[in-house]
Amino acid sequence: MEEKPFTTGSYKEFLESGRLMANRCRSCGDVHLPPRPICPRCGGRSLEWMEIQGRGTLQAFTVVHVPPIRLRGRQPYATGIVKLEGGPRISGLILDVKRGEDMNVGAEVEGVIVREEDGAKLCFRLV
Ligand SMILES: [Zn+2]
Questions:
Q1: Which of 40, 52, 92, 99 has its CA 20 to 30 A from that of 33?
Q2: 104 C-alpha vs ligand 1 centroid, how far in Å?
Q3: How far is the CA of 54 from the centre of ligand 1 (A)?
Q4: Is the per-residue pLDDT at 1 higher than 80?
């Protein structure tokens, strides 16, 4: 259906258009996000795009008080690792949370595509 190459560049182009796209291995069913040109599980090269919903559960998080330069001015902010429904794990900012006490591992989150100067990003928010 989608003919874009399975690269981070394509992933970002989809994000810019408001779609969260992963790829799936036709051989073993493994789902990759960001996409990979070769399946890391079985080495398969037969892949397909799939649109996924950004819902998942928080597996780990931290609240950052001393940010890298590109995020300066935003602290404190939370970042975490989310296991999405369907399998893949991805890290992202957790919006609207400034204290670790306000969230917990296992919390449900939903993906939000945020547009910034340097492009669209997948972030999360507690639900
Ligand atoms: Zn595979």
A1: 99
A2: 32
A3: 22
A4: no
Give me the mean pLDDT over the 8-34 stretch: 94
Expressed in angstroms and rounded, the spacing between residue 119 Cα and the centre of ligand 1 is 30
Q: If 0-12 CB within 10 Å is exposed, 13-18 middle and 19+ buried, where does residue 44 land?
A: middle
State the pLDDT at residue 118: 84
CA 29 / ligand 1 centre spacing (Å): 6
Residue 46 Cα to ligand 1 midpoint, Å, equals 8
pTM score of the predicted model:
0.88
- Ligand 1 mean position, distance from CA 71 (Å): 35
